[in-house]
Structure formats: structure tokens, C-alpha cells
Amino acid sequence: GEEEEEEKYEKQREMIRTLPKGRGWLTKEIILYQGCWLPLNWGLEGALFVQNHFKARPTDIFLAAFPKCGTTWLRALMFATINRSQYDFSTHPLLNSGPHSCFPFLDLYFSNSSSIAANLDALPLPRLFATHMPYSLLSKSVTSCGCKFVYIWRDPKDVLVSKWHFLNQIKSKDLPQLSLPEAFELFCEGVSEYGPFWDHVLGYWKASQESPNNILLLKYEGMKREPAVYLKTLAEFMGVPFSPEEEEEEEGVVEKIVELCSFKNLSNLEVNKIGVEHFSDELVIENHNFFRKGQIGDFKNYLTREMAEHLDSITMKKFSGTGLIF
Ligand code: A3P
């Protein structure tokens, strides 16, 4: 009952107090839990919720990513693709609501709210969820139930720059801003929300090697260069391929979705210029923060050559033998 729940929650708090703490980029501190640095109020409590309460279904499709790798873009693409027969492009819901309201961000469901698990049960199928959690934190009941994961990742140099901008931008004015050299140091050490970056990618990469039908790895850079090609792969993976027979391809549905979800289109919509996403009471973010430049290689404008080379050398070492290096 409720008391039992409360007791469990208190035990959890106790456990959390014993975990290593590090400097947070957004909040004062982040917590090292099972090899991953997480903020307390989403992240860690979200991970515990998923581990303790969440029941995945074989039809569920997860969008997983390290923060700032392209979640906003993929959310829009996945939503538009799955629901393409329901909506007209001229009145599409993405024109009036921010991409983050399309489907839930799992990490925000806290460990003490089993009623939320019931709400999630009521979502239409297939359920779509976004998460920043590393693969290793997902319980066996989730990873082995047959559900699918779309994982997007990106050049860590651009991830660092994007993350540094974003978190400083949305940070409470009461907390000091993180300087770029500090952010760089911390990022290299793996100390940032959901870090280390490399372990995050490797976790999903390994899983994709083992079950390629359940995990699709996408790279931001590749998708920027050939969005239509990637979108077709994505649709096929999600079980809703574009059909030449029904003339979807001929009608240009692929291109229409690519266009609808493009940086240029989304970032210029009223809802994304002045709208706000209410993730939780503590996490309210103005949509425009999710759209900065949307380019490949913006790190060149911020990192010194030495910094860039150092990050590359870490990437080379960590990703050697994987085929992930570009
Ligand atoms: P930059 O900061 O480099 O511009 P996330 O969505 O995971 O938070 O990642 C945010 C990054 O994706 C930001 O990168 C943002 O500008 C970019 N982005 C957002 N929407 C995009 C879109 N529709 N197409 C391409 N990039 C997009």
C-alpha cells in the first residue's frame, strides 16, 4: 500500500545519499549511479522509476539519445512518420505544438508515483517514449521485451558545445554559469548530465550489434546530409515503411515530412519561438532553446584546436574497433 511505497522511497533516498556527487551543469550537483552521472530530480529518480515501475510493451518504440544529439528533431520525425495517415501537412499538430509535447519523456516520471505508470498504460499504441538513459540503466524487462530503440548520436565536439550553450541558457540565474574551459574538462572526464558521452553511445552500439532488429543507430551528421534516406530507414525500422505501391513515395510524403521537421521550418514556427514546454514543475523550458544552429561543426567557433584534438583522441580510443569513428 501507500505506506510500503513511502518506506521504499525513503530507502531509496538513503541509498542516493551514499552515491558519489559531481559538479552539475544545470543543477548544483549530479550523482553517479551505476556508472552514469544523473541529475536527481529527473534522471536518477526517473531511472529508479523505470527500473521499479515501468512496464514496457513489445510494441513500444523508444527514442534514446545523449542530450543534445538531436532528440528534438527525431521526436518530430518519429511522430510525423508514425501518424502520417492521420494528419494533413497543412494542419499538422507539429505546426502548433512543440516537438517535446508529441510524446512523453520517460526520465521525468518519478519513482514514487506509481499512478503515473497507470497513465502510461493508457497511451495509444504503439507508445513512443523519449529517454536520455543509458542502455545499461534500463532493466532487463525493458530491453528484452522486444521493443525498439532509435538511438541518435553526434560528434561529441558539437555535443559539448551544444550542451554547454543549452544548459547555461536554461540554468537558474541563482547558480553560476559554467565556463567553456570548465565544461570541456568535465565533459572529457565524463562528468555531465547522462555522461560519460562515450559510454552512452557504446552501450547502445553494443546492444545494436546483438539485436540489430531492435536497435537502430542513427548519426546526426548523416541525417543532416541525407535526411530522406535516413527517414526511409527509420520508417522501415519502426514497422511503417513508406510504400511505393500506395504511391507515398511518388506523392513526396518523405520529402514533406523532412521539410516539416527541418530546423528551418520548426525553428521559425510561432510555437517554437515563443512557446514553453512544461516538463515538470521544476523543469519549464522555452522552446526556442531547443533550436540553436542545427549545424555540423559549430564546435570550430568555440573550441581551440588543442581542445578539439583532445576530444578526438578520446573518441578514437573509446570507439576503436567499433566502426563508429568518422
Ligand atoms: P546545436 O546546439 O548544435 O544547434 P536535442 O534536440 O537532443 O536537445 O539537441 C539539440 C540540437 O539539435 C541543437 O544543436 C539544435 O539546434 C539541433 N536541432 C534542433 N532541431 C533540429 C532540427 N529540426 N534539425 C536539425 N537539428 C536540430
From TrEMBL:
Class of this enzyme: transferase
Lineage of origin: Eukaryota, Viridiplantae, Streptophyta, Embryophyta, Tracheophyta
GO molecular-function terms, A-Z: sulfotransferase activity
One Pfam family from the record: Sulfotransfer_1
UniProt EC number: 2.8.2.-
Family: Belongs to the sulfotransferase 1 family.
Record-linked Gene3D superfamilies: P-loop containing nucleotide triphosphate hydrolases
InterPro entries registered for this protein in UniProt: P-loop_NTPase, Sulfotransferase_dom
Secretion signal, residue range per the UniProt entry: none
Domain of life, per lineage: Eukaryota
Protein name: Sulfotransferase
UniProt KW keywords: Transferase
Domain Sulfotransferase stretches: 58-323
